[in-house]
Amino acid sequence: MRAYEKRYGVDRASAVQELQRLGRVNPQDAKNMLDQLKRSERRKRRSKSSEKADPRGVYGVDFDDHHAFIAGRTEAGFAFGVTWEERERLDALEAELPVLSKPPSPERRRDGESTSSLDLDDDVPF
Predict the structure, then answer these.
(1) Do 18 and 5 meet the contact criterion of CB atoms below 8 Å apart?
(2) Rounded CA gap, 118 and 126, in Å?
(3) Does one domain contain both 36 and 64?
(4) Phi, psi of 116 (to 5 degrees)
(5) Residues 7 and 25 occupy one common structural domain
(6) Same structural domain for residues 10 and 23?
(7) CA 28/CA 103 separation, integer angstroms
(8) Cβ-proximal residues to 65 (8 Å cutoff; 6+ apart), any chain
(9) pTM greater than 0.85
(10) Mean pLDDT per 10-residue interval, the chain, length 126 residues
């Protein structure tokens, strides 16, 4: 069966069906092989879905014991990103930063002119 798959570049189900049509495989054996293939594919799908339920991958953020944020992995599989120590230092720096508020909007006089201190019209000679 595997030799046929490799030689003709087909998957196992196609190989079973083709060999059955050629008379090389008994129809009952072919049915048993196809049923076994379906069961194994279902098992593979179930195991993949359980792997996807890993809580570290929620919202696309990955972390481990050493990294608070994993930005990616090298070709060898080593993680790189922000470590927990760096994260703590960045959080402390962020806590020290002043909160920036929205600048006040310039007030308008009754005649429509702005009273903002940014008016530079007085310095323009024309």
Answers:
(1) no
(2) 18
(3) no
(4) -70, 150
(5) yes
(6) yes
(7) 81
(8) none
(9) no
(10) 81 85 87 86 75 52 80 87 90 82 60 55 59
